[in-house]
């Protein structure tokens, strides 16, 4: 059973990674291609400034998003707003560094107009091609077990048309077949009719979404299915719980199920660390004039150090020191530290400005270089606040299975800390 599960994970990983890889690379490729087209139109040479701009665009645009699951309106909003933000960042730091003068204005203006058109066209093509390829290679599947995680598995398969799998129904002993029920949630029959059904209908895949306690029944089903050609996958119910990342691993050849583990192990960890180093160095170079101006502003706003060092929890719940520009008249870091509130008297006038714009967080790119943080990840809280949240929120400490980040899901969705 574990071998089948391992095979399923590998299969889904390959299918998902192909589409995910296209989604990751599509935006950077389209942006670079639109710039190259504009350069070719105006006869611009492929000089060092343009090659550098290409590299910066790829770094800022990677990873992209496939937009397969988004509505057309959401796709337009995400692509256009993302491009406006990326172009604004390029113009701002190009102006501050003086690098903007290396490019003719008409090239930048034309690229500004051409890039979103190229992005929208590329994503429209992808939304048309990928599902059609999946449909042309579609396989039929049934789910054994109409329980909660069996239903959820079917929903996830249906929500991802690029998997090329169509669930035609369920087999379950506890639910009777409903007359005329032919939709995708149909109960096709009891489990003892499964073998006969898959042979008669040529079902390609069988998902066993049964509790792990049902081992005798699972073994009987496997015995009944010996003379079929269907692929059989066991889907343990532990994969339907709210865990950070359940996955299959092995210890000297013995399969084990990772119930709670960091997703950044092995090659994934190396890739993320390398991208953190490259991006943080590039960003620090670009924002150094801004950081110098903020440091002067902090120093003049109130007496005290420019940087505020605070103990927070990092990877695996170990304490780390996080840097911020000081935004308060005090430097509190105890176990009884009140969290900042609206109109907090401790916050200086200049501090309120940099807190509102999150510019006080910029020194944390040095934490990224040190390996204490990542650019993307859950925001770290002060130790005092962390101890409060872990008692109030079930599973709160699971967030520490990855490095804390400068920005993450909460900030992207407007949830602040």
Describe this structure in words.
There is one protein chain. By secondary structure, the protein is of the alpha/beta class. The chain folds into three domains: 20-135, no CATH class; 138-258, Rossmann fold (3-Layer(aba) Sandwich), CATH 3.40.50.720; 267-412, no CATH class. It contains twelve helices and eleven strands. Strands 3-2-1-4-5 form a five-stranded parallel sheet. Strands 6-7 form a two-stranded antiparallel sheet. Helix 8 (267-301) runs antiparallel to helix 9 (349-356). Residues 1-17 and 178-182 have low confidence and may be disordered.
Q: Structural class from helices and strands?
A: alpha/beta
What percent of residues adopt helix (DSSP H or I)?
A: 40-55%
Spatial order of the strands forming the largest sheet: 3-2-1-4-5
How much of the sequence lies in strands comes to 5-15%
Mean pLDDT: 78
Number of domains: 3
Order of helices and strands: HHHHEHEEHEHEEEHEEHHEHEH
Distance between the termini: 42 Å
Low-confidence stretches: 1-17, 178-182
How large is the radius of gyration?
Answer: 27 Å
Overall, the morphology is: globular
Major sheet size, sense and barrel closure: 5 strands, parallel
DSSP summary: helix tally? 12
């Amino acid at each position: 059973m574990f071998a089948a599960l391992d095979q399923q994970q590998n299969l889904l990983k390959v299918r998902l990674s192909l589409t995910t890889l296209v989604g990751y690379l599509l935006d950077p490729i389209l942006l670079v291609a639109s710039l190259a087209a504009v350069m070719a139109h105006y006869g611009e040479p492929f000089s060092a400034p343009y090659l550098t701009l290409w590299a910066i665009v790829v770094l800022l645009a990677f990873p992209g998003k496939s937009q397969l699951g988004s509505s057309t309106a959401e796709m337009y909003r995400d692509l256009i707003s993302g491009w406006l933000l990326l172009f604004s960042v390029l113009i701002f730091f190009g102006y501050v560094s003086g690098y903007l003068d290396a490019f003719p204005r008409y090239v930048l203006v034309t690229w500004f107009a051409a890039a979103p058109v190229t992005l929208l066209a590329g994503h429209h093509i992808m939304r048309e091609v990928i599902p059609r390829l999946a449909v042309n290679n579609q396989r039929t599947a049934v789910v054994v077990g109409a329980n909660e995680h069996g239903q959820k598995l079917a929903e996830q398969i249906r929500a991802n048309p690029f998997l090329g799998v169509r669930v035609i129904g369920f087999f379950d002993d506890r639910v009777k077949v409903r007359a005329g029920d032919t939709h995708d949630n149909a109960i096709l029959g009891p489990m003892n009719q499964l073998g006969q059904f898959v042979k008669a209908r040529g079902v390609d895949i069988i998902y066993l979404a049964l509790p792990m306690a049902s081992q005798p029944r699972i073994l009987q089903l496997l015995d009944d299915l010996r003379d079929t050609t269907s692929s059989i996958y066991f889907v343990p119910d532990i994969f339907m719980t709210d865990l950070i990342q359940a996955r299959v691993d092995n210890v000297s050849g013995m399969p084990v199920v990772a119930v709670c583990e960091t997703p950044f192990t092995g090659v994934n960890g190396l890739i993320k660390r390398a991208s953190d180093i490259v991006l943080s160095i590039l960003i620090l170079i670009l924002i150094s004039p801004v950081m110098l101006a903020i440091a002067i502003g902090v120093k003049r706003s109130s007496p005290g150090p420019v940087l505020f060092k605070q103990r927070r929890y990092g990877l695996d719940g170990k304490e780390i020191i996080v840097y911020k520009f000081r935004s308060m008249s005090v430097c509190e870091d105890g176990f009884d530290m009140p969290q900042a509130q609206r109109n907090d008297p401790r916050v200086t006038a200049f501090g309120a400005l940099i807190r509102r714009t999150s510019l006080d967080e910029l020194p944390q790119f040095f934490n990224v270089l040190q390996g204490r943080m990542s650019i993307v990840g859950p925001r770290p809280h002060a130790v005092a606040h962390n101890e409060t949240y872990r008692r109030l929120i079930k599973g709160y400490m699971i967030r520490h299975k990855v490095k804390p980040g400068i920005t993450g899901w909460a900030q992207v969705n407007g949830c602040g800390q």
